[in-house]
Amino acid sequence: MNADSAGHYLVINSGSSTLKYAVFNIDDLSVAERGNMDISPATFSQSLESILHHAGNVAAVGHRVVHGGEKYAAPVVIDHNNLAILHDLCGLAPLHQPHNLHAIDVLREAHPELPQVACFDTAFHQSQPTLHTLYALPATLRNKGLRRYGFHGLSYEYISQQLAVLTPGSGGKCIVLHLGSGASACAMYKGKSISSTMGFTALEGLMMATRCGSLDPGLVLHCQTQLGIDASTLTAMLYKDSGLKGVSDMSGDLRVLLDYTDQPAVEQAIALYCHYIIKAIGSLVAELQGLDTLVFTAGVGEHAAAIRQRVCGQLGWLGVEINETANLNDSPVIHSANSVVKVRVIPTDEEAVIARHMRAMLHK
Question: Which member of 105, 121, 249, 292 is catalytic?
Fold first, then answer.
């Protein structure tokens, strides 16, 4: 890759076993390259250094950081103080935050002069009314940060920006379904987050590829106190062995499952997946007091026409009607001419959102 005269922004999304990255030209934020690398603890630093070197003339690095807590409603340029605060939030997102911050730590040690920007998945949801962020818990717990935060905020921010271009009033009363391996739904009004299915953790809400979604908390207590399942084992079960994978007893990947709908367990898993979505839409419509636009995004939302058809087929009571041909073709607009609700398929781009924030913060 040849670096242009203005240089590049490198955007990193660091997980437990993969390192997703994108390189943007600073002058126009066009994409120079995207990639995804499998990593291990032993190879992480080397992989990160390889990406940095390959990108060439990197002016700054931006990071997706899952949790910004109550303090951060906007991106920050990383320094010693705010990095310490972000590390203190690891207990709120133990399966995501440490991996996000590890990339920052490694680069700070190897390249202390290189500016780094953290962008938060929770920040977009800071616009929610206080009432929508509360759990019915004693103040002693609420004062320790036990509240609804919401996640996938960078994805929702991108969709909000796209809707602002496509639809007057950013879609008005809008529900966005971010359906990937992780899944959530967000109610927006005029482009701002009003409510989200994910709350304190990325486990709540919709049924996901391997995560269970919302559960009766008494069920969790029962597993621990009556079935003798320890916390670490239960955590693994709820995050990694539940959802589509657990119900189908086959896979968490809908691309696989949709080829085996003749098998009862698989069909039940897909039906339950859609049922969770329908229930969430009903709840969010009540909070919005209506619905103008429904958006599907992320891997499943963008590419699984069968899931979109199943979901929209149960929303006739809202006035949702889709064009079957448009849906099968993954068209940007899939509602029929008679549909009361606009239905769109919009590819998300979290990395682009991070790059925009970087340019706004570093090149004012």
Answer: 121
